[in-house]
Design a protein that fits this description.
15 strands, six-stranded mixed β-sheet, single chain, alpha/beta
Length: 619
């Protein structure tokens, strides 16, 4: 049996824990508590306050994860991994606890339900009691929690994560949050006991308290270094994110709540706090060795982002009711990105000490099929490549439609235009082809291939025909088929067969799909067919008597650090698209050539073996 009050009583409820707000929500709705004359208006105000509290932490978390805005001023430079996201999944448990504590206070002291809107004298009383009671009592409590059994049974949980984020403020035991709630209530209770309480005081003090707690855990130095040089006294009146991060790095110093004055008085102020704060405020740029240049898929999936909902982005993408409700805002964001945004840094992780970035071109999938948008998209990609080259990035890998043949020839356009590039431009499709080919069972004699003359289709056809596999290539163009066939060795050309109808494959059970299939077209496949695919979006899983492969993907090595986001199209944790993995292999191997344009069939096995050697595995 664990220590008392070390775990939450509703742990087993999962997301159903939010039903605990239900009784007061029902009371508020039944009494129309939002109307000014309602006797239960306090219910509405209490619910509003806790909604704003949760929003405060969410907004700070969103800010913390906006690397394009604050990566230079990050304090801990590691990414937040899945383990930390899971550990902090229920960070808001303390809000439920404090919600019911506040509700019980309302019932115990009815006068709290009828406070005036504003009384300036109450603010002065609250500030006095915050400085004279809440701050020193928290300091003493915090020091006690760092000793012996109290630390191991309770406070060690709060110190168990690698990178501070606003949700980390909620990662603590019920006992700690009970104590925090009492200390937080002291200034407001004192003002109310003196008859000077007000609605604005309860809202203002509570939200400022949450604002400062979230800020101190945000892992971004938000204060300019010159501020504390210009006004030295401020050093002891407000703790910075750097100040609190030092406490997590060195558990024997910087215990205060918000005011370092109490660390000074207690002899626990870290002497390097302001030197480190000044350094973090000035900011430094970490140069990645590898960049994956992605783009947004669509409006719905754009909300599957660590910058909006960290926990949502840590699981494979599926539309949710909340994402449907937010869709209008996401649509507005799309037009804003289209009008004003440039390519930005989205995420980072580390592999064997090397920094890897994902950058995003602020364009959505459908825009790549608008002819008038092509020049603008290519300018965005070109600018990103030139920026990577200037920074000293080794490899930049083009994702999905960023390497579309019709757009830029699989990246060849940029290499031809800038022959002096030091950064290597890579489409990664050599490994994509390898992943698809390695899925095909040994002994397969015949396959049916759609998208047969595309970049990937061509490589797959040429590879298989060399192995003696008969490839039925679905294409309406005799010229394009002949061009591919002529690339094959003379003795293998007979294995490439042009077909123009799906009916031709009605007896073939291995379909490789590079062009989207409607349910009607899938009906031509015989029962037991397996659909391998490299088409985006994936085809509908319409046939119950057939099986469907996923998009080509690979699992990252186990020693990757700071990975806390799932890559889009519903990929599992730790899995990336094969083209992403292909660019990573190019970087890890130190290849000196650009991988653009047509796929070199002779390198398919070479790249596959290199991927396995570096610890990547088929997903």
């Amino acid at each position: 049996m664990g220590a008392p009050l070390a775990s939450w009583p509703w742990d087993n409820l999962g997301s159903y824990k939010y039903l605990l707000y239900g009784p007061l929500v029902a009371k508020a709705v039944a009494s129309r508590a939002w109307e000014s004359g309602s006797p239960d208006r306090w219910c509405f105000l209490l619910l509003l306050l806790f909604l704003l509290r949760g929003t405060t932490y969410h907004l700070w978390c969103d800010f913390s994860n906006m690397l394009f805005l604050n990566r230079r001023r990050q304090i801990a430079r590691d990414g937040v991994d899945f383990e930390q996201v899971d550990k902090e999944w229920h960070w808001d448990n303390f809000l439920i606890l404090q919600f019911w504590m506040a509700a019980m206070a309302m019932y115990a002291f009815p006068s709290l339900r009828h406070l005036p809107l504003w009384d300036a004298r109450g603010v002065a009383v609250a500030l006095l009691f915050h400085v004279a009671a809440t701050e020193p009592l928290f300091y003493l409590l915090h020091r006690a929690l760092h000793r012996g059994q109290l630390f191991s049974d309770y406070h060690s949980l709060h110190h168990s994560v690698k990178v501070l984020q606003p949700p980390t403020a909620g990662l603590a035991t019920p006992l700690e949050h009970l104590a925090m709630a009492v200390l937080m209530a002291v200034p407001m209770a004192a003002a109310c006991a003196a008859g000077l309480g007000s609605t604005w005081l309860l809202f203002g003090y509570t939200l400022v308290f949450d604002f400062l707690r979230a800020m101190s855990h945000c892992n971004v130095e938000v204060f300019p270094g010159g501020l504390f040089q210009a006004v030295p006294a401020l050093r002891y009146l407000i703790g910075t994110p750097t100040y609190h991060t030092i406490h997590h790095m060195n558990k024997d110093t910087n215990f205060c709540l918000f005011m370092p004055l109490f660390d000074l008085l207690g002899g626990t102020l870290n002497d390097k706090s302001w030197e480190m704060q000044k350094k973090n405020s000035a900011g430094t740029e970490d140069i990645p060795g590898f960049v994956f240049l992605a783009h947004v898929v669509d409006v719905m999936s754009s909300m599957h982002s660590r910058m909006t909902r960290r926990s949502y982005a840590s699981s494979p993408y599926t539309p949710t009711l909340l994402s449907v409700l937010y869709w209008p805002l996401a649509l507005v964001a799309m037009f804003m990105l289209w009008a004003w945004a440039n390519t930005f840094v989205y995420s980072h992780l580390r592999l064997r000490g090397r920094l890897l970035h994902t950058w995003v071109v602020p364009r959505y999938g459908f825009q790549y099929f608008l002819p008038f948008a092509h020049d603008g998209i290519n300018r965005q990609i070109e600018t990103a490549i030139l920026k990577a080259d200037e920074m000293g990035v080794k490899v930049i890998s083009l994702a999905a439609l960023n390497k579309n043949e019709a757009l830029n020839g699989g990246g060849a356009l940029f290499v031809k235009k800038h022959p002096g590039l030091r950064v290597r431009v890579v489409h990664g499709n050599t490994l994509t082809a390898a992943v698809i080919l390695k899925e095909i069972p040994a002994g397969t004699a015949e396959v049916f291939l759609t998208g047969a003359t595309s970049k990937l289709g061509r490589a797959i056809a040429l590879y298989l025909c060399r192995k003696g596999v008969r490839v039925m290539m679905l294409t309406a163009s005799e010229e394009r088929f002949r061009k591919v066939q002529e690339e094959a060795p003379a003795e293998a050309q007979q294995h490439l067969v042009r077909v123009t109808k799906y009916q031709s494959a009605q007896h073939c059970k291995t379909w490789i799909v590079g062009k989207w299939l409607s349910p009607r077209e899938q009906l031509w496949a015989p029962a037991g067919t397996h659909f391998h695919q490299f088409v985006v979006p994936p085809i509908l899983r319409f046939r119950r008597d057939c099986t469907y492969g996923s998009l080509a993907a690979m699992r990252l090595p186990a020693d990757v650090q700071g990975l806390g986001t799932c890559e889009q199209y519903t990929l599992d944790r730790g899995v990336v698209h094969a083209c992403h993995a292909g660019g990573l292999v190019h970087f890890l191997e130190g290849y000196e050539h650009h991988e653009v344009g047509a796929i070199d069939v002779d390198r398919i096995d070479v790249v596959w073996e290199a991927a396995l050697r570096h610890g990547l595995r088929p997903a």
